[in-house]
C-alpha cells in the first residue's frame, strides 16, 4: 500500500508566506528574497513529508497567491487589459496585477474576480475566457517545482487542476459560447505541460477534478471522458491519478469508472458510501487503484482509526493491498499546520485534535497498522487512538442540557417577524428619517498594524485591559467623527476590537475553543484562524453591546450594531463531527438572538447580521440543497426575528452569485441586504432584479479587495446601472464589503467619493421628482 497526500498548506507554520508577500508588495524586501522565502516553505514541506514516510508527495501544490491563477498564467490565458504589463521584465508583476489590480506607473487596471473554491472559505481567482480563447504554454512553474524537489532527492507527484475543472471554474467574458467548448484549444497546450513534466521525470501526476462532485451536463461528462482517454493514449506510461474531493462522484461515477486511469481518489469523509458503490459496480475495472481519502483535510479532529481500518480492509479484501492507497480526503490546504505549536489549548481538547503535520503521521500510522498489525508499537497506537475517541464521545465538556432543551422548544413563531416588510418599512422610515440613497459601510474600518499590535500586546499581558479599551474607544471615536464629517447616513463603530468576525464571537461563546497558530489561507496573503466548536453553544454575556452603545453615545446619527450570523459562524469554524450541522447552527442562532435583543434594549435601531457564508455552505449537489437551505434560513431568522418591527435588520453577503438561491435570500426577510457587486459591474444584481426582490438593497459600488480608489465617475456609473434596475427608493449606497484590509488614506478618499456621488444622485432624482 502507498500513502498519498493530495496537497499541503503553503503559508508556513508561522505565516511566513503572508509576511514575505506583504513585505514584497510594500517594497520592503527584494524579489530575490521573497522567492527564497517561498522556496524554503516548499522545501520544508517536502522534507517533512518525505521524512515521515509519505510515498506520493505533492508538488505544484505551492502557490504564491492561488493555484488557479497559477494555471491560468501557465496556460497563457491573460485578459486583454493586462497585455501591456505582460512584457515587463518581472513576470511576477503581471501575476500580482491579475490577482490584486494595479494602480501605479501609469497603470490603472482592476483585479480579476475572486470567488469561493467549492464549499470552502478559500477563494480563487476566476479565469476569464473569450470566445476563441487561445492558449500557450507561458510558464513552467509545475516543472520547475518538480525539479526543485528532485534536487533535494525527493521525487514528487505533480498536482495539476484538471482541464475540465479549470474551464468550469472560469467565466465567459463574451456572449454566445460556452467555456467547455474551449477544451479543443486547451488540451494541446495542457498536454505540452504534461509532456514536460514527464520529460523531467514525473511518473505520477495527480489531476484534480473536483467538478466531479457537482451535477455535470452530458457535454461536461463527455469532456471528462475525452480528456482522460486522450491523456492515457498520448502518455501510455504516465500513471494518472484522478482526484475528486468534497463530495461523492454521484451521477458522474459511471463516466469515471470507464476512464483508463491508474488510480482513482475518493473522499471517504464527505462520502463514505461511495466505497461500496464502486467496489460493487460492474463497470469498475479492478486493475484501477483506489486511493482512499480517510484522513479529513477539512476538519481538525483526530482520525478514528477503527473506522478508517474498516474502509481499508473492505477495499483490500476485494482488490488486494497493492491496489489500495491511504490518503487525505482532499488537500490539507484547508487545515491548520501544527498542533504542537499550541500551548494554550485545554489539554482535554487538544488530545482530540490533529492538524496537517499530525495528519501526515496519521496516514503513515494507518498504513503501518495495516501492514504490520501485530507489531507492539502498532497495537499500542491503535489502542491509544481508540481510547481518545471513546474519551471524546463521553466527555462532560461537550454536553449542556439547557442548550439542547432550548433548541428542542423552538417554534415557527421564533423565526418570523411580527409584521410584513411593508409595515416594518414605514415604521423604520419614520424613526430613522433617512434620505433617498442612504449611505452606509459594511462594518469594519482599517485594521491597522497599530490596532493589531495593541491586541497582541494585550494578549501577551504587556498592556492592561483598561489601556486596551481606551485605545479601542479612541479609535471608535475618531472613526465616528470621520463618518460624520463626510456625511454618511448610518454609521458603524468599526470593529476594531475584533481579530476576526468569526473568531471574536467564538472566543466569547461557550462550546468553542481557539488556537494561537491555527492559521488557514483564505485568499492571497490573508489568513483566518477558525475557532473550534467542540460542544453545545451558549452565550455567557453580551458580546458587542458595550462597544456599540459607546459608539452611539458619541453621535445622534444612527449607529448600526454589527453581528456575524449563525450560518457564517458555523461555516467558518471547525465543526463538531458528532451531531448534525443543523443542530449546532440553531444553538449559535439562539446565542445571536440574545445578542440582537440586548442591542435593541440598549437603544440600537439598526442591526446588521452578516451572512457572507450562506452561499458557500450550500451542498455541492443540488439534490441536497433544500434540506440545507431550510435550516440555514431558519437559523438566520431565529437570530433576527426577536426584534420589534421598528428595528431595522440588515444582512450582508459577498463573494457569491445568488442566482440559484435568490428565493432563499429573499426568505431571510432582512429589511436591507448589502451585497458585493462592483467587481462584476453589477452583474450580480441581475438575480435580484429578475426575482423582483421586495426589500431594500445596497449593491456594492467600491471594490474593497484592492487598494485601488474608485473615482466618483465610476461609482456614479455603477449607481446609475442600479437605478435602471431597481426601484430607487430601495437603493442603499455602500462598499462591497468591510474595509478591514484597507489603509486609512485610500479609505477616506474612496468613501468621500461614495458619499458625494450619493448626494449628487439624490439632487438629480429630487429635481426630477
Ligand atoms: N473568518 C473569516 N473568513 C472570511 C472573511 C473574514 O473576515 N473572516 N472575509 C472574507 C475574505 N477573507 C478574509 C480573510 C482574512 C482576512 C484578514 O484580514 N485576515 C488577517 C488576520 C486577521 C486576524 O486574525 N488578526 C488577528 C491577529 C493579527 C496578527 O497578525 N497579529 C500579529 C501581531 C500584530 C502586531 O504586533 O503587529 C501576529 O500574530 O504575529 C488580530 O487582529 O488580532 C490577515 O490575514 O492579516 C480578510 C478577509 C471571506 N472569509
Ligand atoms: Zn463581506
TrEMBL record:
Binds 1 zinc ion per subunit. One of its GO terms (biological process) is methylation. GO terms for molecular function: 5-methyltetrahydropteroyltriglutamate-homocysteine S-methyltransferase activity. L-methionine binds at residues 442-444, 495, 610. The keyword Transferase applies. Keywords: Amino-acid biosynthesis, Metal-binding, Methionine biosynthesis, Methyltransferase, Repeat, Transferase, Zinc. L-homocysteine binds at residues 442-444, 495, 610. The gene is metE. Pathway: Amino-acid biosynthesis; L-methionine biosynthesis via de novo pathway; L-methionine from L-homocysteine (MetE route): step 1/1. Gene3D superfamilies: 3.20.20.210. This is 5-methyltetrahydropteroyltriglutamate--homocysteine methyltransferase. The keyword Cytoplasm does not apply. Residues 437-759 form the Cobalamin-independent methionine synthase MetE C-terminal/archaeal domain. Transmembrane segments: none annotated. Belongs to the vitamin-B12 independent methionine synthase family. The active site is at 705 (proton donor). Its EC number is 2.1.1.14. 5-methyltetrahydropteroyltri-L-glutamate binds at residues 15-18, 116, 526-527, 572, 616. Zn(2+) binds at residues 652, 654, 676, 737. Its cofactor is Zn(2+).
